[in-house]
Structure formats: C-alpha cells, structure tokens
UniProtKB/TrEMBL annotation, chains A, B, C, D:
InterPro entries cross-referenced by the UniProt entry: Acetoacetate_decarboxylase (IPR010451), ADC_dom_sf (IPR023375)
Stored Gene3D superfamilies: Acetoacetate decarboxylase-like
Alphabetized Pfam families for the sequence: ADC
Superkingdom, taxonomy of origin: Bacteria
Descriptive protein name: Acetoacetate decarboxylase family protein
Amino acid sequence: MLRAFTPPFTASGRSSLVAPPPWHYAGWLLNVEFDCDPTHGAALVPPALGRPTGRGCLHFAHWQACGNGGAELLDPIYAQYRETIVVLELARDGGPPAGYCPFIWVDQDISLLRGWLQGWPKKMGSTWLTLSLPLEHPAAAPLRAGTRLGASLSVKDRRLVEARLTLTGAPGERLGFLARPTIGAVGWADLTQPQDCPQPQFVRADIADVVAPQWWAAEGQITSFAHPVEELELLGELRATRASAGWAGLTVRGALGLSSAR
Amino acid sequence: MLRAFTPPFTASGRSSLVAPPPWHYAGWLLNVEFDCDPTHGAALVPPALGRPTGRGCLHFAHWQACGNGGAELLDPIYAQYRETIVVLELARDGGPPAGYCPFIWVDQDISLLRGWLQGWPKKMGSTWLTLSLPLEHPAAAPLRAGTRLGASLSVKDRRLVEARLTLTGAPGERLGFLARPTIGAVGWADLTQPQDCPQPQFVRADIADVVAPQWWAAEGQITSFAHPVEELELLGELRATRASAGWAGLTVRGALGLSSAR
Amino acid sequence: MLRAFTPPFTASGRSSLVAPPPWHYAGWLLNVEFDCDPTHGAALVPPALGRPTGRGCLHFAHWQACGNGGAELLDPIYAQYRETIVVLELARDGGPPAGYCPFIWVDQDISLLRGWLQGWPKKMGSTWLTLSLPLEHPAAAPLRAGTRLGASLSVKDRRLVEARLTLTGAPGERLGFLARPTIGAVGWADLTQPQDCPQPQFVRADIADVVAPQWWAAEGQITSFAHPVEELELLGELRATRASAGWAGLTVRGALGLSSAR
Amino acid sequence: MLRAFTPPFTASGRSSLVAPPPWHYAGWLLNVEFDCDPTHGAALVPPALGRPTGRGCLHFAHWQACGNGGAELLDPIYAQYRETIVVLELARDGGPPAGYCPFIWVDQDISLLRGWLQGWPKKMGSTWLTLSLPLEHPAAAPLRAGTRLGASLSVKDRRLVEARLTLTGAPGERLGFLARPTIGAVGWADLTQPQDCPQPQFVRADIADVVAPQWWAAEGQITSFAHPVEELELLGELRATRASAGWAGLTVRGALGLSSAR
C-alpha cells in the first residue's frame, strides 16, 4: 500500500519530496509590471492558451511555505525559498484576461516540484531581494516614500534580470499573478518515447485564503541580460510600468483543469 | 508547434530544463556494497517489483554529463554534479536479480529531472567525495594500496550518511547499479486529484556505451544517521561488504517499460 | 597611492572585500538566552578577559547591511546574510559584566571579514530562521501569542544547533550582545613564523544608532549536537532561559581598544 | 594557554578555521596565459613590487587540500574547493621576473583564510571547470588532441570570466604561478583606526614538494565581462597566448618576507 504523493515512493510517504496540498505560502514580494512587444511573447505561450497582450509582470519573492500544522516553520530550511516569476497577460476569446507563467526560477527542490505540479516551469536560480524592515535605520529600507529596493536573478552563474524600485508613499495595486488567475502547463516527458515532446495539459491552481492587506506603490526599473540558455530575451525590452511591494499569503488546495478554469 | 521536451514549454525548446536523450555521463565513483536486514527494505520497494534480498549498494559520484556535441563541457556548470545513490537488490520471480533505487540525492536541477524521468527519485542533497589524483602527493589520494578516501551526504543541512574506503591494491568489482539493471518508478501526482497518490510505472533505462575499464578494490565502512524526513534509517545498520573506486561512463538513450525490462 | 581598506589592494579600493566603516546593519533576530556550566566556558575565553559566568545567548539573525549611501540595498546579494552567534557573559573584575563571542558562523564573505576586524571569529555556516510576517496566515508566523518559530545552524554539512521559540504575547527583553557590550579578539597569524600562535588584541565595536523598538518574549528551547571540529559542545547542555524575537538596527563606526573598553 | 593559529581562539585550537602549516594541495588545473596592456596593470600592483610586464595567467583549479595526516581527505567537505586565480608577471629591478596575484576567488572559508595569510586576496566566487577523465566517452573530455574544456567564474551572481581550451596533443608548459615565485600582499585593517588603509607586507610562500609530472598543451580563449565591483576589467582585453591543463601538487610550509624573497 503506497501512500507517497511524489517520489520517493515509500510505504509511509514520509520522505516524499512533496506532500499533498494544502500548501500554505506567505511571503514578501517586489512586483514590477512591464510592457513588451506582444509579438515577442508568442514563442513563449502554447498557442491553445491565447495571445499575449504585451503586458506582463516580474515578481521577486521571499516565501515561507508549510502544510497544515506548520511543522516546516519549526525547521525553516524546509519552509523558505526565494524565486523570480515572469507572468504574461493573455487575451482569451470569450473570457477575461488570464495570466500565464512562461518562466520561473527558484532555489529549493520542494518548491520546484510543487511548481511543476501546478504547471509553473521552475528551474533553479538565485534570487535576491531587499527586505523592508519596520525600523528607521539606514539598512532597514522601511516602507515610506523614497525608500529604494533592489532585486536580482542569476541562472547558472549568469545574471539574467534585475529590478530597482523606489517607493512613492502611495498605496499600491495588485499586479501580475496577484491580480488575475494564472494558467499553468503540466506535461511530463515519457522516456520510453524519447523523441516525443509532451502535450501539456492546462490547469489553474485552486487558491484560497488570499491575504494581502496592503501594497506599497513604487516606481520600477527592469534591466535584463542576454543568456545562452534562458529565453527571457525573447520578450525584448521590458519597460516597467507600475510596481509595488508588500506581503501576501495564499493557500493552494489543488488545481482545476482548464475547462473548469475558463 | 511546441518542441520542448520538458518545461518551460517554449517554441524552440532552447530553455527546456532537460533536452531529449541521448544523455552521456562520465564520472568518478566510490561504491560501497552493504548487507542489511531484508525486512527493512520492504517499506521502500513497491511490492509489484519484488522482494529486497538484504543486499544493496551506496554510490557516491562526481559526474560530468552532456548531450551529443558536448556543449555542456564548455560551460561546465551545465555538466557537473555530485550525487549519492542507494540501490537495493531485488529477488524477482522468474528472472535474474535486479536493482531498485529507493533514494538518491543530487545537487543540480537538470540531473534532478533527468532522474525523475528514469524513475530515480532524486531530491536535493550535498555530496562530497575524495578524488583520486594521478600524483604522488599527500593531498592526492592516488590509486594504490593504503590510500584512504571519504564521502558524505547531507540533506537539508543534516548529515545523513558517510563512507570511508581504504584501497587494497587489488582489482575491484562492478557493484550496485553498475553490476545489474536497475528499475525505476515513474509517477506524477495530478493536482486536480490532490488526495490521490500516483501509481508508478516501472522502467529501466536504455543504456549504451558503458565504459569502466578498471575498478580499484577497497575496504569500506558506512555510517548513517537518523533524519527527521529521510527514510534511509529504515534499512537499519548498513554493514559494508565489498567496496570499489573508479571511473565509469555510460549513455542513456531512453527507457524501456518494465514488460520489456523483465 | 593605495586606498584599499582590505584585500585586494588596488589603487582605487573599489573591489576591496570590505570598505571602511560606517557599517549599517538591520535585521530580524531570534535570541535564546541559556545557562550552562561555567567551568565549560573557560576553554573558550582568553583568560585575560575574565571568567564566564555560566550565562550566554544564542542569536540567529537575518541581516541586511550597507555603507553610507546604501548602494548594497539596490543589489542585495551584497547586503544580506544570515548568521548564528554565541555570546558568553563574562564576570570582569572592577567592571560591569561584558559579553564575549567565542563562536559565530555566517554565510557570506563580506560579513566574514567585517567580523574578524571586530574580533568576532566568523566561519562559514548555514543559518535558517523563521521570519515573522505581518499577515494572518498559516505560513506567516505572525507576532502574537502562540506563534512558533524555528532556527538552525549547520557547519560543514552537519547540523550543530537548533532552537525553537513560542511567542508568549508579552513584551520581550534585550538579550545577549543586544544587552551589553561584547568584546572581540583580533589576531592574525604570521606565516613567516608559522609555528607561533598570535596573541589576540581585544577590542569593542564602536556602535551607534541602535534601534530596537520592541522585542517579543518567547519560551525557547535549544538542541545542540556533537561535531568533529566545532567546539560548541564544550559548553555542555544549553538550558534555555529567556528568549525573544524582533528587529534591530545598529551602526558600527570602528572599534575601541580594550583599555578604552574596560 | 592559547594554542589557536586563527580564530576562534580556543584553548585547544581544534575549531580554528586554519591550522598551522604544512598545507598540502593537489589539484586539477586549467591555465591560460594572456597578454594585456601593461599600463592597465599598474592600478592593480603595489608600486613597491615592480611594474607589470603585460603578461599574466588565469588559472582555474579544483583543489584538494589537507594537513599532515590527511584527515581532511576522509571528510572531503574540509578538503575540496575550486578557485580562479589571476597572476600578473612583474619586472623587478635586479631580479628575475616574479608573479603577483591581484585577484583570486574561492568557494570555501578555510582556503579563503589560508590565502589571506599568504597574501592572496581571496574573495568568494563560484568556479567551474571541466575535468578530464581517463575514459573514452563523450562526457569524459579525455586527455588527447581535440578535447575541449571549459571554465567559468561568477562573483556575486555575475559571470566575470570564462575560458575555453582545446588540447593540441602536445606536451604543455608550466605557466603562471606554476612557473615562477608569486609575491603576496598581507595587510590587516585596524578597526581602531578606521580611516587608515593598511600598508601591506610582502611575502612569498615557502613551497616544497612540487609535483606536476606532465602538462597538456592547449589553445586557449578568454572572455571577460564588466562587473560593478570587481576590477578585472582594468586589465583590458585578455589575449590568450599559451594554455595548458594538468594535475599539480605542492606543499606550503610557511612564508618568507620579501627581503628573503627578492
């Protein structure tokens, strides 16, 4: 009798890399919305999902995640990770705009697999982002007008994208995956058919308990760099529009197939 | 038209985490065969696959891997990784013994996914192993009688298993996954059915071009440690029997379903 | 004309690992005060400094640091690090109690060298600590009675010490290096006299701009582990007394020699 | 009675980051000699040491190091590290050319401090280099004409320099720090005088037991990148001349002051 949700497939499932949902997440986020040439995005979105509008969002996040009971919070190497998320807005016939995640990089294995199960194509990357601490001190980057925050992502020892934010002092808005449902593409290669590419299935995470009491508006700036493997550069120049910083929590209970998701 | 073997699913597939096989591997390995109580292994092996014999092998490997053309060897952050492998020997009705991998830990994302596609349940872990250098020098650990070599694995900042080898000067033997076919368990959780555990499918890697011209025999010693998540301790005491060190190369071309594998 | 404060010694000093002070620090800290057998501490404190009282404190910190101007906050890989600090209380003849840092482990080079210049004997180690986020969410560990927080330190892939805190809901106290001046031991081996051990000089950091508006009291628990190299175990059992969590900022402007420090 | 060679200053010295020499090193190296504009190097060399000739060498090394007894080889997280070394050739009045190391990056703390004590200005960096394995296999990069090898260095998540080598099949030469004595600059900032820069002292490591039985010649190529902190770009274009690959071992017994070194 096997009770393992993911490998390794032991009888107890204790060592499974990922336990079944619910998965609770809470984190600090820097979000920079951007405009790009919509023709660029087409190579990054499965055609069945719709057409990129030319708007997207870059998120840098420092997450803390746990299951029911919160045991991971007592051994936080199991709870914490940082990631960089790219979300593109899709125009969808007969429906409201949705988001799609073409790229995402994380620094931890549990989150990597949870992402794939949701159709978020996680790879390993090194994300850094300034934290805003509730102190008046030169190193604290407190939440008030004029404070500057930075973030960076490096993939395989090459910097891929950076952002800088300057808080305006005004309230901010929900952006990117925090503003609309995001569709994921799930597909597993079958090594017994090693020359076939999988046809991804599309799902939307079943999210509950979203808390994000306040966002702080910012002026943002994005710098991206060429990379021999990553394809972020297909989006061309990323022209920052709106930006925000703040804390958010949410819970993933599972996923819905796309027909439900539409 | 999607040509991505694994996420992300872009039109070009250039940034896919894993490209289709062939996958070429060459590495330095420390191998320690062990005996353990066979009843312990039952919780770690899918019942359909057979019964653990009580024999297994611990491998510590420093790999270099690439596709055809070898581009990764020019940017070796894409090629190199270290891993620790546990293989158990299975008695199989009507067939020769086979191996099964209940646990494996690696330090790199590309290898993690290649492993999952072959049914090797990789998680992240930190492996260290002494290299044997072709020099007569106190730090070189050259290949001759009396040289001592060490290896260790840490998972989530806790040491899980260590090994020490002393070369005997005699030729060594092929051990563990190098001595017999190893069966993998492939299964993907479906987040739209979040309370169901996947039924794994069993495959055997389709391996070609094995080169391992020489193994150096060693006396081995294994020390394992309790861990709050990992289940290696279910195997009880690991009593080292034979051990060896050496280089090996092999190429994975795909996988065979288990009916072919039997 | 050389203007480098630390290696490398270039003309501009731009690439020096550490720039001259001031060094501004702001961070999130978990602090657990402990009692231990005072005889144990004597092997860890230079005799000239005084006698351990048998009281000490373990700090886990997630820091953000920068110089004047705060450029590091825009490229936070230069600003952020995590560390674990052990402080022992010393009885000092003719003076108030002082602290001494026998051990400290950090995960970043800039902080490592800044520490040595202050007489804090930093080595590399991997520290994790739960963050308290201002959200009501199962993964947020908010600052209220009953919230549980964890921390861990691993050195060379072996877990060395862990702590767990449960917030009481009451205000907390300043503990450890936050409660009293801490003396550091600075000494550099001279490789032209390779068999001599340096005689350390004793300094106290010149600290200004301390901000720590509020501490949250907690019940704490410490578990430490044997280690083949680290000597924390010389302190014997660490019996947690008071504990607290909170944010603190401070600025180091330089250091004072011990005669000033007394 | 203090017996600690480096911090922490405990009675036993067991946990000192660095033990007294001898320090035994054995490793695999990729070496690429280069020409650059000699005027560029002046900002990187203390004037007292001489004048850069415009020739230098870039070394990428995968080291294994230990003290007498070799205990580190049994727990190789204490023995192994990778580093990237830049050496410049100096014209010295009245003496043969010497080398000077303006920059070096390593991935481990023990080596960092051993470097500083020898006047090698180590900072943390991530080095990767292809290993040559004694196998005929596509992933093995064996030592024969036509084999291609790569190396890279990243500092604070930005790639700083890369090299590619193609083995010619001919014997190679000793290059860089392997060809001539290299002078180091040792200097420690004094935090009680926080606005003063130290005047470095110059030393040369006292090296014995050099073994490097064979070098394999290569055609090399270097690509370097701008960096906001590192100053490698002051050397301008690095035009690869000779290159080689191979194993080397050496033992450092201490250091000689420069008057001896001249």
